[in-house]
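Morning!

This is the sequence you dropped in the shared folder:
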Amino acid sequence: MIRMKESIFAVAVMLAIWSAIALPAGMTPAQGLTFGVMVITLSLWGTGLVPGYVASMFLFVALILGGLAPPQEVFASFSSSAIWLVVAGFVIGAAITHSGLGAQLGAVARPHVSKSYGTLIVGLMLIGMVLGFVMPSSLGRAAVLVPVGMALADALGLEKGSTGRTGVAVIIAIGTNMPSFAILPSNIPNVILAGLAEQSLNVQFSYTKYLLLHYPVLGLLKSAVIVALVLILFPARVREIAQPTAPERAGAGRRQAVLLAILLVTLGLWSTDQIHGINAAWIGLGTSLVLMIPQFGFVPPPVFKSAVDFSMLLFVAGALSLGVVVNTSGLGEIIAGKVLTVLPFQQGNDLLNFMSLSLLGAGTSIFTTVAGMPAVLTPLAQELAETTGFSLNAVLMTQVIGFSTVVFPYQVGPLIVAMGLAKESTRPLLKIMLSLFAITVLVLLPIDFLWWKLLGTI
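The structure's back. Tokens below.
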């Protein structure tokens, strides 16, 4: 396995050197070097040859020392709302765990999901799907559900390092993120796509039509496939075990009740963001501030120091920065434009065009991450509509299929963060992502095509 990883990295280095020298596809020298840095970074993230945060540091150092991008672009991720949602997620998760609220909520849920491992996995997926309708942030959903899920894993004998515990972490990470791509305001790429379509093309999306078009396949059917994959790839058996009764700290019950009230207020604000207009990240930061005040005891300083994983923040920041640099350098348009000449678009062949557009989105997001993909493909939507004969709206909607068809975990920061909150390795995500990608392309995309045909979208 190590040799395979090293071989992939060696190929990436050779490709990077070639791009810097040959300047393919009309790249400028700066773009050629940036493309090389991007390829090496992607190879490090994809193979896991080094920890993700080391690859992010390589990206930062190479771009800055190489003069390939100004600091405000390289470190743009640290001023983005997404990175502060990560911080808020760590703090909220720490408060839920430290206060014992996660264990309490797990005890309430346990009678309903403890009959079997399959029941547990299905139950957690359903909870994640329901949260997608009321919480606009997948990181917020993970922050709430991870402590509860891990408490359930403890109560059902799924020990650290077991495949069952990994399966619980994986289903929460995916369940709080993947189905929500089919709900308009629930994930960042959805919102970016809607904003760009309105600003640049004067196209507005309907919440109901968006949901009807995407949720039956990308939400319901794909979630069923994910549950099946988790049960197959991470099999386990649950067993009821007696939980040690820890001495209750003074005021613990009252503190849990207050924390629950704070979380309900936060949830209410998250759910109504379209009314008050406050970004979910800033709501999360406000909640985090309250929880971090030492006198309240929700997240004391020692707990905060152990809860906030700086290496995870670096990893996510690197993924976000890569998308920014690829877009601002013009590489995104070059990559997408080059792919356009390769894909077999053909007017009148709707299935071929549908599959090509979907794979164009999926392939582009490997380089830009899912959040950056709409910024690259939306300006090309009119040209793609003329090439395929699809309506402009149909072309834009294929982007949703594209950024929800993920190959590598690094493309979706919330997946990585959720595994970090669960204190589990991210490597199992790659196994399930590759399996899910294959099933999506071979099975779900043709079904989705038939559904779009039935609705008259294409």
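Headline: The mean pLDDT is 85.

More detail when I'm at my desk.
O.
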